[in-house]
Amino acid sequence: xxSLAGMLxxxxxxxxxxxKDVYPPMSTMLAALGITVKQGFDASNLTPxxxxxxxxxxxxxxxxxxxxxxKRKLLYRSQAEVVKEEFIRxxxxxxxxxxxxxxxxxxxxxxxxxxxxxxxxxxxxxxAQNFGTSFRVxxxxxxxxxxxxxxxxxxxxxxxxxxxxxxxxxxxxxxFDHADIYLDLNAVNLAFRRFMNLVPGNGRLIAGWDSxxxxxxxxxxxxxxxxxxxxFGISNDAKWQIRNPDFSKxxxxxxxxxxxxAWGEFETPLLGEFNxxxxxxxIIAADAWGLSRPEIREALVTFKNVKxxxxxxxxxxxxxxxxxxxxxxxxVRETLRALRAKYSQKRLVAIFEPRSWSSRLAVFQDDYAxxxxxxxxxxIASVFDSSKVTEKGRALxxxxxxxxxxxxxxxxxxxxxxxxxxxxxIPELRSGxxxxxxxNGGFGGIHEKLLSKLEES
Length: 457
Prior knowledge:
The chain has 3 domains: 73 residues, NAD(P)-binding Rossmann-like Domain (Rossmann fold), CATH 3.40.50.720; 221 residues, 3-Layer(aba) Sandwich (UDP-N-acetylmuramoyl-L-alanine:D-glutamate ligase), CATH 3.40.1190.10; 146 residues, Alpha-Beta Complex (Protein-Tyrosine Phosphatase, Chain A), CATH 3.90.190.20. The chain is 33% helix and 25% strand. The longest helix has 16 residues.
């Protein structure tokens, strides 16, 4: 929503907004753009009447501004509808979908296509550090967008990605997620199948073949898949493959094979095998849009990661503090594995806040117990806004989670929130430690609080 506000402003519209809790990096981006954000919701914010009210998918009936919009019969649209009609229709669109890696892959794609001279518009669910922003409105025929499977609005419960008109569609992986809106994995698979069906016959479906669920969805479509299929992965039967990954030096190096023939050698500053696969998906898309291998190679080596993806927030007293957006157990596991590989000789302290709907519910209780295996020391915060969780199901049992992690033979404890965690860690941390803080929210400003207290101590 914040990125769309910036895009509409770039088109010359006067944009204002309302929210109850805006935090960095989006709050600072909106402030820099001079876009007014009202704290809290009030019917008076709709006077004078706007030409269009754009309703985010977190906004329910009963919201004062929704009720005023309906009462006064103001024009209203969802975020995805506006993006489709204002910024995608008529363009070549690359839409990046999947349970994990969407933001990073979309950022890589935006940078690679930019460096290849396509000058794309883009819309990303995070701040791409190469651009210093999460969006761009460009005068070109190309658009790159992060395609989210979460629902669109209270009046449109279908996935947002059904609005995005992909010419190239990347599906990195499929897992059960968003337990608040999807009943089970079958419902998730059906949503992705519908997304795949949007790719036209002259387009490309770029499918992560290491994901059993992606395979199952594609294979179930069979002859009803009416587009060109490009499979990628580590798997031997993928058309495009990563081979010979090497993380031993400053840059991650890997070879790309296509139909078992050497296609190119590439390097990236990104960590972890999962990020090499993100790069491979973009390589396939860039090749489809006519970029040369040298152009792709140079762009990948100069890519900077997205904010809040293994982002080093600072180092104090020899302690490195890292901010990461991971919240699904697979993302937590892969993030910690990548950090373990990079900081193999250091103590890795993992701090996790169950904040997304799926992480707050008990649906992944056992998966989280295994997700922290690469960490040496684990701290779990209280379930965010736990009073609302019971409305949708059984909450994650942090006590049981700690017991399961303790059985792995490592220190682990549960603490209520940011202040208590910082107070506990300050006397515990020593020079050489790496602290990975994982949350998909603001987490009470824990990163700056920890860095500040380390500096004082």
